[in-house]
């Protein structure tokens, strides 16, 4: 038995992570020749992992996605003469972590099954809204083809004739979803290692891809030896609480020999922190534990309001015995007030006190002196491993009701610095989870703060992205995904501050201080990304008392929202349907306002919402995209062809039936043509 394996990888950041080295090592134990196809033409980091295990490596552009990479390897790079010298062919991609047991045992188990091709898992037949019926099919991330099929003209002709797909959805629909039924229709038999669809029925609408929904059960109970990366960013609250994913990673860490740090290394680098927090429930409800003196911990307070002194001191009295405390006061009156209470306090100008530590929404006014002061501040914290930054609040009714301000203060201090026992429990969590980099209080959701929910970047994305580029942060920052948590107050590991410190020192030496005021101003938006760049994730921390109260409040909000939607738009069964109800109502209102409706997009969303509009004027695609002449019997136009007409007409409206990422891009295109009469679905 001679076995050829083709492993395909692609990474936008041009990095090969260690989890790939692990699976390549395992594949080498049961294959005679290992070829790696990199759909990333150049590798910036980790290339040695490929070179260690691969017999040959092919670098190419990501043309045709995975299927295109396999086609190139089979038809052009390796060639059929060499391919057909083997008895079996294995096709594997980099979309999964594992295996959680030896790869040899997987092949030994499947060698007992008399089939022509096999995989790890299959998707049950299903029907998806906006699409036709799809047959049962093996998931394409792992294929094994045996001799009868490998050496057939059917197999060679399939790859020779397969086009290079131009969109991901097209590749999924025409390659992955149809491959199994095509070859089974020719008489080739198949099977899979793990029965991941055990509880599915003939109700096609309910036949989800189970590896995306129940990874814990699959790994523990159903013989599935991998964790799909897709599971980690999958938003599945329409069907479940998403408890399975965190349980799965904990199980892998505790019950298998696989190093779970290989998973964390990749997902911290490649995924957005907001997705990680939601999917992995990085919410820490801290029960107090017995405290002790800690020399590695600093409580750093930025004091700006005389009205808050008594409130701050009440908390600091609970902390001063076990932790070093430093206070930066914005004026001499505050400095004297805290010194009279026996606390170390340094006077800073108000702008410097806020900007040096990164308070949200404060305008900068400094220069080289401020950067020097910041450099001094970094020196003062050098000996500490863990730092808690805390802000006070105006307790008067100058800007808003004083009770609102006091609740905001409580939100910060009760969760970050409730007591010495609470802080000790937080520090224990940092010690137990070496990749935990920062902890922030939950976002306030009461009073006017409720109105801030859902605003995402709130117009700050461009500034934050520019800073991230200058700092060369290695993490995923995208406009369509909101920042994880915007907060000036937090717990953070000192080493995460190193990149900011080094960059600002450089700026101080090169007279770039004015430009770098933005770094200080946007720090609250950057904390979680700085943590990711340092290989760490961030989380939300709550005391047990606060979590109980906040849970009740959130349930009250949800009930209120659901009740109002039901009154205005009718009944719904779940969160997804509720959003559809709102979208449909908005679409009806929009199409009533604009007699001529254009739909941007030609995917399943366009089809779904196009059916709700009596007469679609035309479908629109971006210039340079593949454009059919018609979509559902309606003409398709490039944006440039009709942008001028839409921009000047009061009768034209554009409905964006696109995903979040594409919506953000298209909105910029439309606004570049002075088109503001659009609706995002």
Distance between the termini: 54 Å
- Trace the largest sheet across and list its strands: 14-21-19-20-18-15-16-17
Level of helix content? 40-55%
Radius of gyration: 28 Å
**Low-confidence parts lasting 5 or more residues at pLDDT below 50?**
352-367
CATH architecture of the largest domain: Alpha-Beta Complex
The shape is globular
Alpha-beta classification: alpha/beta
What CATH first level of the largest domain would be assigned?
Alpha Beta
Overall mean pLDDT stands at 88
Number of strands: 27
Main sheet summary: 8 strands, mixed
- The total count of helices amounts to 28
What is the CATH fold-level name of the largest domain?
Answer: Spore Coat Polysaccharide Biosynthesis Protein SpsA, Chain A
Q: What does this entry look like structurally?
A:
Helices cover 44% and strands 17% of the residues. It has three domains: 3-204, Spore Coat Polysaccharide Biosynthesis Protein SpsA, Chain A; 286-545, Spore Coat Polysaccharide Biosynthesis Protein SpsA, Chain A; 571-680, Rossmann fold (3-Layer(aba) Sandwich), CATH 3.40.50.20. By secondary structure, the protein is of the alpha/beta class. β26 (652-656), α28 and β27 form a beta-alpha-beta unit. α1 (18-28) packs parallel to α2 (47-53), α17 packs antiparallel against α21 and α24 (544-569) crosses α25 (575-593).
């Amino acid at each position: 038995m001679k076995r050829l394996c083709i492993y395909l990888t692609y990474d936008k950041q041009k990095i090969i992570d260690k989890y790939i080295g692990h699976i390549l090592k395992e594949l080498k134990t049961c294959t005679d020749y290992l070829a790696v196809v990199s759909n990333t033409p150049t590798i910036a980091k980790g290339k040695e992992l490929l070179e260690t295990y691969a017999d040959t490596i092919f670098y190419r552009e990501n043309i045709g996605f995975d299927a295109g990479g396999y086609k190139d390897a089979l038809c052009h790079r390796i060639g059929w003469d060499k391919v057909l010298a083997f008895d079996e062919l294995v096709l594997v991609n980099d979309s999964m972590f594992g295996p959680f047991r030896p790869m040899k045992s997987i092949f030994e188990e499947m060698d007992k099954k008399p089939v022509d091709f096999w995989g790890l898992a299959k998707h049950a037949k299903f029907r998806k809204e906006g699409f036709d019926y799809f047959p049962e099919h093996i998931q394409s991330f792992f294929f094994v083809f045996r001799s009868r099929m490998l050496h057939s003209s059917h197999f060679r002709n399939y790859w020779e004739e397969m086009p290079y797909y131009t969109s991901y959805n097209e590749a999924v629909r025409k390659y992955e979803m149809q491959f199994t039924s095509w070859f089974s229709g020719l008489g080739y038999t198949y099977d899979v290692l793990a029965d991941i669809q055990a509880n599915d029925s003939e109700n096609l609408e309910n036949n989800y891809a189970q590896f995306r929904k129940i990874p814990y059960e699959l790994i523990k109970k159903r013989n599935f030896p991998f964790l799909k990366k897709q599971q980690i960013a999958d938003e599945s609250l329409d069907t479940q609480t998403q408890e399975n994913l965190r349980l799965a990673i904990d199980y892998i860490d505790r019950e298998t020999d696989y190093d779970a740090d290989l998973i964390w290394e990749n997902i911290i680098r490649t995924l957005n922190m907001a997705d990680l927090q939601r999917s992995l429930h990085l919410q820490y409800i801290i029960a107090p534990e017995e405290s002790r003196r800690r020399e590695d911990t600093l409580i750093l307070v930025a004091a700006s309001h005389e009205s808050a002194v008594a409130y701050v001191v009440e908390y600091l009295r609970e902390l001063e015995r076990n932790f070093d405390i430093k206070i930066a006061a914005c004026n001499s009156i505050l400095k004297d007030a805290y010194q009279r209470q026996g606390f170390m306090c340094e006077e800073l100008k108000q702008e410097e006190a806020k900007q040096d530590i990164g308070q949200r929404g404060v305008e900068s006014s400094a220069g080289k002196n401020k950067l020097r002061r910041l450099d001094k501040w970094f020196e003062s914290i050098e000996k500490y491993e863990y730092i808690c930054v805390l802000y006070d609040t105006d307790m008067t009714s100058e800007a808003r009701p004083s009770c609102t301000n006091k609740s905001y203060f409580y939100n910060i201090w009760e969760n970050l610095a409730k007591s010495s026992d609470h802080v000790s429990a937080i520090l224990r969590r940092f010690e137990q989870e070496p990749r935990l980099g920062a902890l922030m209080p939950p976002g306030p959701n009461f009073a006017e703060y409720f109105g801030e929910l859902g605003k995402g970047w709130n117009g700050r994305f461009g500034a934050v992205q520019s800073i991230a580029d200058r700092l060369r942060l290695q993490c995923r920052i995208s406009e369509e995904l909101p920042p994880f948590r915007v907060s000036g107050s937090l717990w953070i590991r000192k080493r995460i501050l190193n990149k900011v410190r080094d960059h600002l020192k450089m700026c101080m030496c090169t007279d770039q201080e004015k430009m770098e005021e933005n770094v200080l101003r946007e720090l609250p938006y950057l904390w979680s990304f700085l943590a990711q760049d340092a290989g760490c994730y961030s989380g939300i921390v709550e005391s047990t008392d606060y979590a109980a109260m906040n849970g009740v409040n959130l349930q009250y909000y949800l009930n209120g929202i659901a009740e109002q939607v039901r009154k205005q738009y009718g009944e719904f069964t779940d969160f997804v349907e509720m959003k559809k109800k709102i979208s449909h109502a908005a679409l009806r209102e929009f199409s009533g306002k604009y007699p001529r409706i254009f739909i941007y997009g030609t995917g399943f969303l366009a089809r779904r919402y196009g059916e709700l509009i009596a007469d679609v004027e035309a479908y629109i695609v971006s210039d340079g995209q593949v454009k059919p002449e018609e979509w559902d019997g309606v003409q398709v136009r490039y944006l440039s062809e009709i942008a001028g007409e839409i921009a000047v007409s009061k009768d034209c409206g554009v409905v964006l039936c696109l995903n979040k990422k594409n919506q953000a891009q298209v909105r910029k295109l439309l606004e570049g043509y002075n088109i503001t009469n659009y609706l995002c679905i």
